[in-house]
Amino acid sequence: MTVHRVAVLVLDGVTPLDLAIPTQIFTTRPETPYEMTLCALDSRVATTAGFALVADGDLEQVRAADTVIVPGYAPLLRPPEAVLGVLAEARDRDRRVVSICTGAFALAEAGVLDGLHATTHWKHIDELERGFPAVTVDRDVLYVDEGDVLTSAGVCCGIDLCLHLVRRDLGAVVANEIARGLVAAPHRDGGQAQYVPAPVAVAGEASLSGTREWALERLGEPLTLRVLARHAGLSQRTFMRRFTEETGTTPLQWLLNARLSRARELLETTNHSVERVARDCGLGTPANLRLHFRRALGTTPTAYRRAFTH
Predict the structure, then answer these.
(1) Which pLDDT value is given to residue 200?
(2) Quick one: pLDDT band at residue 248, thresholds 50, 70, 90?
(3) pLDDT tens digits for range 261-303
(4) Are the C-beta atoms of 178 and 25 separated by less than 8 Å?
(5) Are 59 and 39 contacting, i.e. CB atoms less than 8 angstroms apart?
(6) What is the chain's Cα-based Rg?
(7) pLDDT at 197
(8) Whole-prediction pTM value?
(9) How far is the C-alpha of 192 from the C-alpha of 211, rounded, in Å?
(10) Helix 157-170 and helix 16-25, axial crossing angle in degrees, nearest 10
């Protein structure tokens, strides 16, 4: 595989968890082409946790990178001009520029987000919108993909965005394998709400994770809202409310995303016909599979198979 150079550009006041996400996901593995370097304007960088870290790379490694990722940082002061210049240069040279959480403010300061949609941590959405009127701020999403410019919402949404990048680069099988290693959800669509009021079940209530696992084992079957609610032992209205509280999306949208993910894996790892893939993942017909592939991925099942068959 051709080496894909990833520069993680850390700013003073970097959030350690935001930083850990891309360094873990893009670390060197036999099955991936990524070569990741931690970069900074100065080699020693302060963190929000009170300790400092040492970056091996500098801005020259950022200039040489294929993908530049800026983790979140605080306080949200304007970064040094040298940093803004290298980010603007990466954008001008059609390199992929990515932010996690409040890293979006650095991209905005560099003009990288002008004329584009973007997001950041929900606590700082208003600040981003007020400070950068040339940016269209999307409030209720996990991440925004504008092609070569991508931004994620708060902290752990960076996991979803980085796995999305791996999925774009290498396909669903590799992305799902990395997700399993992280014990992370294999795929959450960017359009889900970033602020989930109750991401885990509150005391005294049972999580619906058992029903989700049950459904994942039966994607080829006709799964309706009524069937899912019955399995959970809840009314449809209560099931819908609690499912959305736990996942940030509706049951049927979650089911569609799961079926598309299964279809991608089948296309990558089997020689099954498109008709069989559509049936096995629960989308029914080749026409329905093509429709949802076109809407979600901008391609056809056949073209996807050609691109990601290993």
Answers:
(1) 33
(2) confident
(3) 899 989 988 999 999 999 999 999 999 999 998 888 888 999 9
(4) yes
(5) yes
(6) 20
(7) 34
(8) 0.73
(9) 19
(10) 20
The domain at 198-310 falls in which architecture?
Orthogonal Bundle (1.10)
Burial annotation 183-210 (CB, 10 A radius, 16+ → b, else e)? ebebbbbbebbbeeeeeeeeeeeeebee
Sorted by where each begins, the domain ranges of the chain are: 4-182, 198-310
Higher pLDDT, 110 or 208: 110
pLDDT at 204: 38
Are 284 and 220 spatial neighbours (Cβ–Cβ below 8 Å)? no
How much is the average pLDDT of 37-56?
Answer: 95
- Listed residue (119, 107, 29, 42) closest to 68, CA to CA: 107
> Helix or strand or coil: residue 76?
coil
Which runs of consecutive H residues, i.e. helices, occur in the chain?
16-25, 59-64, 81-92, 103-109, 125-131, 157-170, 172-182, 209-216, 225-232, 236-247, 251-269, 274-281, 286-297, 301-308
Beta-bridged to residue 150, according to DSSP, are: 98, 145
| SS3 category, 69 | strand
Check if 4-182 and 198-310 are the same fold: no
251 within 8 A of 240, measured Cβ to Cβ: yes
| Long-range contacts (CB closer than 8 Å, 24 or more residues apart) made by 297-303 | 297/260, 301/263, 301/267, 301/274, 301/277, 302/274
pLDDT of 205 > 50? The answer is no
Contact status, residue 232 vs residue 160, Cβ threshold 8 Å: no
> Would you state the structure tokens that stand for residue 305, as one six-digit string?
């198979």
Class of the domain covering 4-182: alpha beta
Distance CA 129, CA 41 (A): 27
- Tokens of residue 247, six digits: 């996942």
* Tokens 């959480």 belong to residue: 101
